[in-house]
Design brief:
The protein is α/β, with parallel strands linked by helices. It has twelve helices and 13 strands. 44% of the residues are buried. The protein binds adenosine-5'-diphosphate and ligand VHF. Residues 10-13, 161-163, 166-167, 169-172, 192-194, 196-198, 201-205 line the site of adenosine-5'-diphosphate (ADP).
């Protein structure tokens, strides 16, 4: 599998100080990405900024104004991205909080992204601001990008911003603040984060660290990089820049999976137990019975023939497993009418005692 990166670009990295989109900035970012042999999904902010620039109005204060300006700006933003990524095509993907929270929509988005990568196009993702109500919105693209990284099983999440990493304090406020180049445990640095650096940004370092926390729990490293396309290029060339926030080590994640309360159990045969112990995923064929009522994404206990062997995050709900257990993977689609995953529990989401 190719290296897969989710790159989130904040409004502050796309616009000038008047909040207008600067095409040269987009060009520099696309050029830096062009040096990589990787699949990249871009989470691009800047729709509201682009809308303000086009209509020559100040930054909106109310949500409806913001929604309308995002709708104006999104199309213009996509046109700019299409220009700089040519000859590669770009694919606009707008997501809302509901798409992350609803399992069917989450899986649909996952499939669409996979298909986009296969087509060799660059997915450009933003929050679907026009339908995002106050109660149901992610509100910032840092959080969105972490979910996207999880969605497309990225190897790395890069947050491109207007500061070259996480500092011991907001460097705009405290000039003695020092950059941290490596953070092993994001929970220990959450308190260092301050708010947005400019009127153009949303959330500041706080939402970036929250995003890193989501990515970290999904086993994905986060990098906070500054300096636009040039900063990105320097980073790809190995310069000592930015902050790397390490994903939870396998052991930490393993511990987390093992210590969550389980919503049900999957009983598995000895062949399946052997497969799991040699690092494979759990397929429906090896399941001999189920207990409890669990949903997709919840924790289930794995019961071997001689007792519990571990826990995992399940890819199908109990009522679905009821219909596919003991059957071949190839039969899933025929039985359920869809097949979101081959595995009932993927090996990356499995922890054995
Ligand atoms: N501890 C910190 N280290 C670095 N930057 C910080 C810190 N606390 C707050 N910030 C602020 O976070 C800003 C970046 O976030 P933000 O303005 O939301 O940009 P973006 O548009 O890229 O999301 C920086 O400009 C900086 O002022
Ligand atoms: N969805 C909004 C961006 C929201 C956001 O998080 O902005 P930023 O902090 O600049 O990444 C837009 O396109 O304007």
């Amino acid at each position: 599998m190719k290296r897969r990166i989710v790159l989130k670009i904040g409004s502050s990295s796309l616009t000038d100080e008047n909040g207008r989109i600067e095409p040269e900035r987009l060009q520099a970012i696309a050029s830096a990405l062009g040096t990589l042999d990787a699949e990249v999904a871009v989470v691009s902010s800047g729709a509201v900024a682009a809308g303000c620039g086009l209509l020559n109005v100040p930054r909106p204060r109310t949500l409806p104004e913001k929604q309308a300006l995002a709708a104006v700006g999104q199309a213009a933003l996509m046109q700019e991205w299409a220009k700089v990524f040519a000859p590669h095509a770009v694919a606009q993907i707008l997501l809302s909080a509901g798409d992350i929270q609803d399992r069917k929509r989450f899986v649909n988005a996952k499939h669409a992204l996979e298909a986009a990568f296969k087509l060799g196009v660059v997915p450009i993702i933003n929050e679907n601001d026009t339908v995002a109500t106050q109660e149901l919105r992610l509100g910032d693209n840092d959080t969105l990008s972490a979910w996207v990284a999880y969605l497309c099983e990225a190897h790395e999440l890069i947050l491109l911003t207007d500061v070259d990493g996480l500092y011991t304090a907001n460097p705009r406020v405290d000039p003695t603040a020092k950059r941290l180049s490596l953070v092993e445990n994001v929970a220990e640095v959450l308190h260092l984060a301050g708010g947005a650096g400019s009127s153009r940004g949303t959330g500041g370092m706080h939402t970036k660290l929250k995003a890193a926390q989501i990515a970290s729990e999904a086993g994905i490293d986060t990098l906070i990089i500054g300096g636009g396309g040039m900063g990105l290029k320097a980073f790809f060339e190995g310069a000592d820049t930015g902050t790397r926030i390490r994903a939870q080590k396998h052991t930490a994640r393993r511990g987390w999976i093992l210590h969550q309360p389980s919503k049900g159990s999957l009983f598995i045969d000895s062949g399946a137990e052997k497969a799991l112990r040699s690092g494979k995923s759990l397929l429906p064929k090896g399941i001999t019975g189920i207990a409890g009522d669990f949903q997709y994404g919840e924790i289930v206990r794995l019961e071997g023939e001689h007792g519990p062997i571990g826990q995992g995050i399940v890819n199908y709900a109990a009522h679905e497993v009821q219909r596919i257990f003991r059957r071949h993977t190839e039969e899933i689609e025929e039985i359920l009418g869809y097949k979101d995953f081959d595995e009932v529990v993927h090996r990356n989401h499995l922890a054995l005692y």
